[in-house]
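Review form for a predicted model. The reviewer records the input and the model, then writes brief findings.
Reviewer: anonymous (R2)
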Amino acid sequence: LLLLGLMRDEDTSDPEPLDRSGVDDDRLRLVFTCCHPALGLDARVALTLRVVGGLEVPEVARALLTTESTMYQRLVRAKRKITAARIPYRVPAADELPDRVHGVLHVIHLVYTEGHVASSGDDLLRVDLCREAIRLARLVADLMPADAEALGLLAHLLLTDARRAARTDARGRPVALEDQDRGRWDRDAVVEGTAILEHALGLGPPGPFQVQAAIAALHAEAPHWDATDWPQIAALYGELARIAPSPVVTVNRAAALAMADGPHVGLALLAGLEADERIDRYQPFHATRAELLARSGDSDGAAAAYRRAIELTGNAAEREALTERSRRALGR
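Model under review:
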């Protein structure tokens, strides 16, 4: 591995501390190494996606809403820091875990996100990344069974991944949530994820991953699209925006509000993001805005937003689906 080679290149002075965690899993050790607090948060996330997730630098840049040149610089600095600070290759001991685990949860979630909708290639999904993220989330939850957010992440991934079989058709093309055959959803994963979430919610005030898991649970319990509890989902996104604000959360909240209260409400929320220079590179912003503009009757605005979303889409299956969705929405 690139990172392990870099760590072993330098000196042979003091041996690194022994791994006292009892966890014999090289991938989890690698995640904790990439997420060491000596590294800045942006560097931790970028390095984990590159080294553990196997993403190419342009893919990492897209995932983190930044440019390729910035990402190359960030990765180089992170690797140098690992060598200079002699960051050990190990899972932290139990007394160190509370200060380390939440950065790890964040990057495991991003690895899953890349698998859920691959940023490039011909296929919508990267099942290998989805499975690996869930496996790592299980390991972290086993390490910290009383950590509500570790359990919340595992619940969120299970409840989201339960829909995987229904998310593509026989040709591998994406199937929108409203069109999915819910009989193909993995009910065992739904039951397990719901039980883990209920346990997590009993451990204390909910954090971001528990809130996301609750949103996924509301989708999972709806027998059909029209039965979805959009006001409750919109309220949960509002809570998520309060405790973990980000452009990604705002885009999802806008989509939920549009379903609950109409497209103009969602569009008003999206308008507040336009001053953020990162947002022009964020494909879901343009795709969501295009759909809401089409629903509000602004065909020209929707067409422009769809064009920008398609232009930003590196995944061939998703690009084809967006093109078809644009044709259906605009009749062009």
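Findings: The chain has a mean pLDDT of 87.
Further findings: The longest helix spans residues 97-116.
Recommendation: see findings above.
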